[in-house]
Design goal:
Elements (H helix, E strand, L loop, with lengths): L1 H27 L9 E7 L10 E4 L2 E19 L5 E12 L3 H4 L5 E6 L6 E6 L13 E5 L3 H11 L1 H20 L3 H7 L1 H26 L8 H7 L1 H19 L9 H7 L1 H23 L3 H7 L1 H23 L2 H8 L1 H30 L3 H7 L1 H37 L1
Helix pairs in contact: 4-5, 5-6, 7-8, 9-10, 10-11, 11-12, 12-13, 13-14, 14-15, 15-16
Amino acid sequence: MTTRKLDVLLGLLFFSALLSLGAITIVLSDFSFVGERHDFEFISPDVGYLRQGDPVLVDGMPSGKVQFIERLGAPLYATLEDGSEVRCAVKVKVRMDVDLLALLFEDASIIIEDRGVLGGRMIRVLEGRSGIPRSPDKPLVAISSPPLVQALGGVVGDSADDIQATFANIRLVSERLTTGESALGRLISDEDLSNDLTTIIADVKSGAASFADFSDSFGTEGDGTLSKLINDPKLYDTALAAFEDIRGFTGGSEDGSNEGTLSKLMHDSELYDRALAAVDEINVFATDLNTGEGSLAKFINDPELFDTAKAMVTNINDVVEDLKDGKGLLATALNDEVFAQQARDTLSSMATAADDVKSFTAGLAEGKGLLSVLVNDEELAADVRELLAQLLSGLEDARETAPVQGVGGLLFGTF
């Protein structure tokens, strides 16, 4: 009974292994019980080590495999998309799960390329972008790209001079490092310089640690100004308001209109020239003060003038004190109402007299009155001057004959 059970288990295990092997075979062979299969033939001038079973990719996805590869009995000539003609001697048959004729456009291309660095080939199908359907009668030409190793060798060959120059530079740098000609070489070979660099690095590390401690104190209630500025909202608002005031003074308004005093001084050339001229005048004024030129300089530098001004100020203070104490005529005029009224009456009389003089002069100007006529009438003025001249002449004659008349009167009075 036990032997029979073992046989059944062994049979089941063997049958399961066969099923697993069949499933793995189906998966690896891309066999499918459902879906259509499409066979296509490619022609190529050189397949470049392509083998049966190599994958065919469409849009980067595995879509089929190479079934077999054979040489054509007679070469075929095909025209590529760029207009060049190629001689194709190899035929490649592929089986795919997509219909290439329904996918490909006129500018489609089929490329045989390497799978990777480890070797192996594959066929990559590029559908094209022209939007014009490909003619079913046009042959499918697969062009082989150079193997990766061969392409890399070509790149290396083209850059051989550059590679040699690079190795020469590396050798030159290593020689300089060995001889200590360069800065890095000196750093490597010079022990003192190396020690100095080590000290510098240690100082930098210490400074970084101090800065870390300093920055960590920002998050706590530190005693420093910056820490208080960060942690104290009131102090931060005060500083922000101060910065806004400074910006308003230096940079103008927020809309960029440059209304600040300093901003106008920086942007207004006329205001700048005026400020510069004012500074020059201040410099000249200061120079005059230092050299003793001008009234203010003399007042500052001349002790006698200063003493005179001081005495004048003292006298003015005495006058003010006398006014407060009611001493003197001016104090009486200010404090005595009767005297003040008399002074006002006198001033009123003087004003009336001034008005009379003004009226008299106005009458003269208008030609009113005898005096005005005498002033303005040239003929009458000439007559008056002639009359005065005759009068003066008569007085002179009388003065000369006065002694004779006196002697005559005495004689006639005696006799």
